[in-house]
Design goal:
Blueprint lengths: L19 H5 L3 H22 L4 H4 L2 H10 L6 E5 L5 H6 L37 H15 L5 E6 L6 H13 L3 E7 L10 H6 L1 H4 L3 H13 L5 H19 L2 H5 L4 E7 L3 H14 L2 E7 L7 H4 L28 H15 L3 E5 L3 H4 L1 H7 L4 E3 L4 H13 L3 E7 H4 L3 H9 L6 E5 L16 H4 L7 E3 L4 H13 L5 E4 L13 E3 L2 E5 L6 E5 L4 H12 L5 E5 L2 E3 L3 H8 L3 E9 L4 H11 L6 E6 L9 H7 L4 H17 L19
Parallel strand pairs: 1-2, 2-3, 3-5, 4-5, 6-7, 6-8, 8-9, 9-11, 10-11, 14-15, 14-17, 17-18
Antiparallel strand pairs: 10-16, 12-13, 13-15
Helix pairs in contact: 4-13, 6-7, 10-11, 15-17, 15-22, 18-20, 23-27
Length: 653
């Protein structure tokens, strides 16, 4: 395919689309051209910004058909998880915004109410759309409104328990509702589990798909006889699909089922959607698609079909343009395999994110000791509890934002039983372009209340390896190891260690104890140097294990005039809060100021941009610290007054 997006008004069909009404007027021939142009557009734009490419290439015809059959925004489209809504954005007048996709001030990588009346839900966690749809359909019914609700759900999302809870209620309510199952055989990684096996039956039926595709190629190019003959065989193909489809599974739930249909045949999809719309009750439309369809590098990428290139890539090859660097995930993956070599009781678990979390490295060497449970974080946590009860030490690797979904399981199924389970949280803290639903800023606050749970925050590759080994050595309760996204900074050796606490730098004057959590270790050292220029002495420490608060940290605090904590998590209930409580309990009357992330919804942007907005940079923190300690001098060592919120949105106690 050629990859060109062309300027507006260049004669290309895609340039004429300013809203769904433009798509409704097109002929079948024009729709085929439009689909090809949309793919060209997506590849060209995402190759410059990064983003979720593979999922969107797979839903082009599906999204076109939805906008031809239904009337958005009166009819409501709900995308699960939302990362496949790029085509929807294009068809609803947002093509120009793709130049700044996932960048500050540009289009979100997910649906966004602030962008368009065509977007309704913004939460980009999987397996939630059907519950939204159930409630929305009930609301329309109670209000007497004749409006359609359409939920697009990937087969991977159906591995999540919420989907089946919702389906049970949807079937019972009997309200008009169209559920499009976008079946590409994948969630993020290839979809796994019994349901996936059922949905895969039509793809796995011995050879018939490949044979019929070959027939289509050969007969489709034969004049006169070719097309009619193919139509006959196509009818036979549909009969074969009916014999192996999951129709019975859904209809046993009380849901009408249409399909499976070719999700890349816009006419077929449109026909199925019109039938579903007219039925008057809940209908499953099962569309079989291919992730990355129409773009060779994506189709040939077996690992994830170019699901979500993180940055700009070469259009011809699909390879990232940025030079490779050592990532936090890579360090974790390597060390986990080394530990597994030494300890046969160590096993790995992930929730449909084997490659992104690094668990895939363990799976390649020890497939029998690695479990991908699908999009089911709650099950992952309790299954890990079972593995621990069976004498193993599970390492559960998920994104920090997703462990929030399993709080109850971590609390009552793991921690209450004092089970040795290690949760490794990738993408902790402010992660950037994917926006507020993907920020891993809640973990230290949310899980800090769990009795017996220990939380570690490494500052570099060396401490990640060290703390992972310490975590899996714990045999009387759960542990969490959290680290940010992106490249690992250079190792930052400690000058000495006090108990578990690393002292990174210290001065003769004991004016300030700066507690730098995790990856903020480098920032802490930079702040100390800046504050020293003003004549004040700063001791910078990395607690390494932030929960429970090390007793040595309280002792160190008692020897300074001011304590400042800086963390990449929400302030409410964070490390600063926890240390303040320990100081109160120990009757240590040293003033404490905590810097962190306000408990708000922060817009998407780069990590550096957001930290800059929050005042979590070396320059900003140094200015704050200098101001606080100088006011101590002015107050004659009395406790500092509580300041008003500062200009960067960071409050300090």
């Amino acid at each position: 395919m050629s990859v060109e997006e062309g300027p507006a008004g260049d004669g290309r069909l895609v340039s004429t689309v300013r809203g769904p009404q433009d798509v409704k007027r097109m002929s079948v021939e024009e729709l085929e051209i439009l689909a090809a142009e949309i793919r060209d557009f997506l590849v060209a734009k995402v190759s410059r910004t990064g983003g979720h490419l593979g999922p969107n290439l797979g839903v082009v015809e599906l999204t076109i058909a939805m906008h031809r059959v239904f009337d958005s925004p009166r009819d409501k489209f709900l995308f699960d998880t939302g990362h496949q809504a790029y085509v929807h954005k294009m068809l609803t007048g947002r093509q120009e915004g793709f130049d700044q996709l996932r960048q500050r001030g540009g289009l979100s990588g997910y649906p966004s109410q602030a962008e368009s009346e065509h977007d309704l839900i913004e939460n980009s966690h999987a397996s939630t759309a059907l519950s939204y749809a159930d409630g929305l359909a009930k609301a329309f019914a109670l209000r007497g409104e004749q409006r359609s609700v359409v939920a697009v759900v990937g087969d991977g999302a159906l591995t999540g328990g919420m989907c089946w809870e919702a389906l049970n209620n949807i079937a019972g309510a009997r309200n008009p509702l169209v559920i499009v199952v976008n079946d590409n055989g994948r969630s993020y990684a290839p979809t796994i589990g019994g349901l996936a096996d059922h949905l895969s039956a039509l793809r796995l039926n011995p050879g018939y798909e490949k044979v019929l595709d070959l027939v289509k190629e050969s007969l489709g190019s034969t004049p006169l006889v070719g097309k009619p003959m193919y139509e006959v065989l196509h009818a036979v193909k549909k009969g074969i699909k009916d014999a192996v489809s999951p129709q019975t599974m859904f209809e046993d739930l009380g849901l009408k089922y249409v399909g499976p249909i070719d999700g890349h045949d816009v006419v077929a999809v449109e026909s199925a959607l019109r039938k579903a719309k007219g039925f008057g009750g809940p209908v499953i439309v099962h569309a079989v698609t291919r992730k990355g369809y129409g773009y060779r590098p994506a189709e040939e990428d077996e690992a994830d079909c170019l699901h979500g290139p993180s940055s700009a890539f070469d259009v011809e090859t699909g390879k990232l343009l940025a030079a490779p660097s050592v990532k936090w995930t890579h360090v974790f993956a390597e060390e986990l395999v080394d530990i597994a070599d030494e300890r046969p009781d160590v096993v790995g678990i992930t929730a449909a994110m084997a490659e992104p979390t690094g668990i895939a490295a363990l799976a390649r060497k020890y497939p029998e000791r690695t479990y991908d449970v699908g999009i089911a974080e709650q099950h992952a946590a309790t299954s890990a509890a079972g593995l621990a009860l069976g004498g193993l030490h599970p390492v559960v690797a998920v994104y920090a934002t997703f462990l929030n979904r399993a709080f109850d399981q971590v609390l009552l199924d793991v921690a209450m039983h004092k089970l040795p389970v290690t949760f490794v949280l990738d993408r902790a803290g402010v992660t950037g372009p994917d926006g507020p639903s993907h920020y891993g800023i809640w973990d230290m606050s949310v899980f800090g209340v769990v009795p017996g749970l220990r939380i570690a925050a490494p500052r570099d590759a060396a401490t990640l390896r060290e703390e992972l080994r310490e975590a899996v050595a714990v045999d009387d309760g759960p542990t969490i190891l959290r680290f940010p996204t992106g490249s690992v900074a250079a190792d930052l050796p400690a000058v000495r260690r006090v108990g578990p606490v690393d002292v990174l730098t210290e001065a003769e004057r004991k004016d300030v104890l700066l507690v730098a959590v995790g990856a903020f270790g480098q920032l802490g050292v930079q702040v100390a140097a800046r504050v020293a220029e003003q004549g004040y002495g700063v001791t910078v420490v990395d607690p390494r294990w932030v929960r429970p608060v090390p007793a040595e940290l309280v002792t160190l605090a008692a020897g300074h005039r001011l304590v400042v904590t800086v963390e990449d998590g929400v302030r409410n209930g964070g490390v600063g809060d926890a240390l303040a409580k320990e100081l109160r309990d120990a009757d240590v009357r040293v003033p404490l100021r905590d810097l962190g992330v306000p408990a708000q919804w922060h817009p998407h942007g780069t990590r550096a941009q957001i930290l800059g907005d929050l005042g979590l940079t070396a320059q900003d923190v140094a200015r704050q610290v200098t101001g606080w300690v100088s006011r101590l001098d002015d107050a004659g060592e009395r406790e500092l007054p509580v300041p008003a919120p500062d200009a960067w949105g960071v409050q300090a106690k």
